[in-house]
């Protein structure tokens, strides 16, 4: 996607339901992203009804690029994010305005995030998950084997389709431990959405079912990333 096309697309993506501050953040960051990276999008999302997105995680730039992709696909993403971000002035207003969901990890309050995500999906929202709950720990940037089952739990509770999404290139634009993006040479960032993960034969929300659903979701993400990279993933 060329810079001019990316900037033009900004004015054609959904605006209603973004909230003032989230919308402002998008309008400020989108041009910077279009100027600093070549964006390549492929795949589509359901245009109506609740949907769950599950993506690999390589960089702090991922929420920006995934948001751009999701908007370009006609949906507004709602994220689950660390509750500590709500304590940051400015960020709090963006998160609240965008209808995002705070997560207090490893506490009894973590269930509130699950309930919030289920309610959002049942309202017909598009809820975004990074199942690894952090950056990939693989040196070759394949999805981590240590994942959370929250995305599977929400999918099984709501019956909503789970769409695998993969990012590639954000780790070069903004490496995991870098303080600033690498603007030169201009990087290419690719985002692809695949077909829904088939969970139709699974029932219940017991641990065994959630583990199997999570495994299928992560397998779909890994296979989609392998296709995008043109490489074979490691055998695990």
Q: Provide the CATH architecture.
A: 3-Layer(aba) Sandwich
Rg measurement, Å: 17 Å
CATH topology: Glycerol-3-phosphate (1)-acyltransferase
- Model regions low in confidence, pLDDT < 50 over at least 5 residues: none
> Looking across the biggest beta sheet, what order are the strands in?
1-7-6-2-5-3-4
Between the first and last Cα atoms, what is the distance in angstroms?
Answer: 34 Å
How much helix, percentage-wise, in residues? 25-40%
**Mean of all residue-level pLDDT scores:** 91
* CATH H-tier superfamily: Glycerol-3-phosphate (1)-acyltransferase
Tell me the number of strands: 7
Q: List the secondary-structure elements in sequence, H or E.
A: HHEEHEHEHEHEHEH
Largest sheet: 7 strands, mixed
Provide the CATH top-level class.
Answer: Alpha Beta
What is the total number of structural domains? Answer: 1
* Shape descriptor: globular
The secondary-structure class comes to alpha/beta
Query: Given the structure, what is the number of helices?
Result: 8
Structure write-up:
Pfam families: Acyltransferase. Keywords: Acyltransferase, Membrane, Transferase, Transmembrane, Transmembrane helix. This is 1-acyl-sn-glycerol-3-phosphate acyltransferase. This protein has a single domain, classed as Glycerol-3-phosphate (1)-acyltransferase. Helix content is about 40%, strand content about 15%. The chain contains 8 helices and 7 strands. It is globular and about 50 Å long. The model has no long low-confidence stretch (mean pLDDT about 90).
